[in-house]
Each structure stands twice: as C-alpha cells, then as structure tokens.
Write a structure and sequence with these properties.
Layout (H helix, E strand, L loop, with lengths): L8 E9 L5 E4 L6 E4 L7 H7 L7 E6 L13 E5 L14 E5 L5 E9 L3 E5 L9 E10 L1
Length: 142
C-alpha cells in the first residue's frame, strides 16, 4: 500500500488538543481535511506526522510550539491609545479586530486588555506558544 509523501494530496480526520486536554479543533462530523503534504498548507509538525502513513493508519503526536504556530512573540502585542481608535469603537476582551500591516494587508488581532485610555491587542496566532497534540487518521491518498 502507498505511503503518504511530499506532493501527495491526502485526506485526514483529526482532533487537536492542548496539554490540558482542551479540544481546540476537530474534523469529527465534517469532511476530512484535504491538503498537499509538504506544500506548507498545514503547520510543519502536522505535515511531518502524515509522512509515511498509509490509508487507514492512525497516529497521535504531540507537536511542540516551534513546529506548530511558533512561540508567542512580545513584539506582536501593540498598545493603542483611545485617540488612535474611532470614537464609536467599544473594545471587549477577546474581540477580534483587523490591523493594517506594513504591506497594507489586514492583520488579525484580538483585544487582550482595555481601559479608558488604551487597549492592548495581540496579533500572535491564538495557539502561539502552545504545544498541540493531534490524533489523526489518514483516510485516503487522492
């Protein structure tokens, strides 16, 4: 039977959990995730765990933060004064907003602190700094 390798289009079912066993994502009840192995469509550690699997194989692997969404970087946190924000903006902790990147494209961020004079937003990925454990099943190699 064929083993998954770089360049193969694969379909997998997965469940992702954090170290405290909190589930952050799953394909259960949905179509399998389809991606090309080694094409950078998924985090590096996920690509690595699929390599060498055959259809029907299951595997559980803990992926360290540096092979997932990276470490949380302090320079990705930004403090904005209320004067820099529209008057009608009412920030709430956890609220998703979009900042404008240096290239003019939107950068997603979330509000992590807010008071009368300023807000702090974090543009790190929500799972930055987290090790992720995935249980995957290779459904098929397309």
């Amino acid at each position: 039977m064929a083993q998954a390798k770089d360049g193969d289009i694969v379909r997998v079912h997965y469940t992702g959990t954090l170290d405290d066993e909190t589930q952050f994502d799953s394909s259960v009840g949905r179509d399998p995730l389809e991606f090309t192995v080694g094409a950078g469509m998924v985090i590096p550690g996920f690509d690595e765990m699929v390599r060498g699997m055959e259809p029907g194989d299951s595997r559980t692997t803990r992926i360290p933060a540096d092979q997932a969404y990276g470490e949380s970087r302090e320079e990705m946190k930004l403090t904005l004064t209320r004067g820099q924000l529209p008057d009608e903006f009412k920030p709430e902790i956890g609220q998703q907003i979009h900042l404008e990147g240096q290239d003019g494209r939107p950068v997603p961020a979330r509000v992590v602190e807010a008071d009368e004079s300023r807000i702090v937003v974090d543009a790190n990925h929500e799972l930055a700094g987290e090790a992720l454990t995935f249980k995957i099943e290779l459904v098929e190699i397309v």
